[in-house]
Amino acid sequence: MKRSHKTTVGLINADTLAFTVGKDPDLDRRLIVADCIGSAAHAEMLAGLSLKKVITPAEKNRLITELVNIIRRAQKGTFKISLQDQDVHLAIERTLTEKLGNIGKKIHTGRSRNDQVAVALRLYGKEQLLSLAEETFRLCGALLRLANQQQMTPMVGRTHMQPAMPSSVGLWAAAYAEGLMDDVELLKNACILNDRCPLGSAAGYGVPLPINRQQTAELLGFSRPIHNVLHAGNTRGKMESIILSAASQLMVTLSRLAQDLIIFTMPEFNYFVLPEEMCTGSSIMPQKKNPDILELIRAKAARVSAHAFSTLEITRGLPSGYSRDLQETKEPFIEGLDTTLASLRVMITLIENIKVNREALLAAFRPEVFAADYALSLTGKGMPFRDAYRYIKEHLNELANMPPLEAIRRKRHLGTTAGLSLNILNARLTKEHKFFKDQKNRFNRRISSLLKIKYPLV
Hints:
Elements: E1 4-7, E2 10-13, H1 14-21, H2 24-27, H3 32-47, H4 57-76, H5 88-100, H6 102-105, H7 113-149, E3 154-159, E4 162-168, H8 169-194, E5 196-197, H9 213-219, E6 224-225, H10 229-234, H11 238-264, E7 272-273, H12 292-316, H13 330-353, E8 355-356, H14 358-363, H15 371-380, H16 385-394, H17 404-410, H18 422-451
Parallel strand pairs: 5-6
Antiparallel strand pairs: 1-2, 3-4, 7-8
């Protein structure tokens, strides 16, 4: 048997340590700031207890000062998490003890790594949700600007990928903007569910100290504590899967948009032209301009969905109380959110720089595209619809030379080509943007007050 390593929680066999630690030293670099913030709130609360010997106000100030120093080191990439540390939580405790001696040894009073990681993941999740929402609003804005510029640019609408009815670039772009707004509502619901504090639940059964869980929730900018301490631990994994599920719906929208653009930028269609600098080449074919980023978004959408499902599946079979299985939810959680954020950002740049080929769009109109519209115009003159349907089916030749622009101007009811009412979508965008902006400002104010510095640190 290989030698054992000395850790904060005892001697551990080398193979066992490597296996149980896994990728945590690397993944946990993403949680350093969140864990420091959670620890600062915990220290603040402990310093206010009637048990004055736990942590004094002076000791609390020194702890928070050192936690801020760790945050600064993390931003510079100089804070290290070793295999012996096992994770970010014990790495921070080790560092506090090295710097502050016995004061550092007090930081873990009244908590477990269970509620420590739970609150760190919720704080991390909150900031990631806010970032996802912000980038989604940017993409919505880009699509709505495109819709506004191209409201009256005709485009063949398709079902089964076959020519169907007259449509417009404005309708197409606004459809994806509205789809993203629906996805934002899922982000919003995830944000609301995530906005509850598990800190103070310890290992899931509370502690025999008069801790103030309401205070720590308020210090961290949460709306409230999770009431039942066992339930607080049971939300691990499930909360991550909820956030990833919302992200996966965003990715579904991006994937369908990517698929449309792959098709409509093919030379056979040529409806849109992708920015040349966002296309990749071939190692053998000099002429190639490949839509690789769109193909990757399609694939990454599947990966994010898989991350959401794997996180849910890991959680599904667990009993109440903590199980180490939950460690395996961290990687898909972090990777899934990273992937979604990166996909949003590259799609924003693409939509902001895409070119519309009006000539190709108009050239795609053939007489049969107007069949349904013309049949309905006959019903407006009194012909029963099914008779009009059969008549047009037998006389498609009468639809030659129909003007596409006139066809899209005739559809004036809500939400169609001449009734886009983009002001309604812009108003909805503004309203949802305000919710997330208020959440972000409230959180930053609370953490700035807690750390006694302006947060986020620049």
